[in-house]
């Protein structure tokens, strides 16, 4: 999976805005970049959002460690949660850049709208990462069930 995966899907609760996803999976790390654009903004650049690095904690696997490398307050929490979730699921260091804007959603970015978008991003990303996740969850004793 050395070639980047680029795709887009509708931003939940928005009429014409899409989330654009750029996913690169390397042997030792995962990089994910997210942004949004409406149909009329598709050709213009979007501002850089937060950029977070997360890595699995071998002493406490359910709580990955995360460090923000670039912070933009409106996107920081979303980015940190996503980076930690991907690091925990894949057991690989993960870099997440996020500049998703909820301005075009029905109520302008309520908690429910943000959670719907988070769930959709996780669903789409984990579907793309399935080949990475399944070997990470294989039994560590070398015995594979038939």
From TrEMBL:
UniProt-listed Gene3D superfamilies: 3.30.230.100
GO biological process: proteasome assembly
Protein name: Uncharacterized protein
Annotated source species: Parachaetomium inaequale
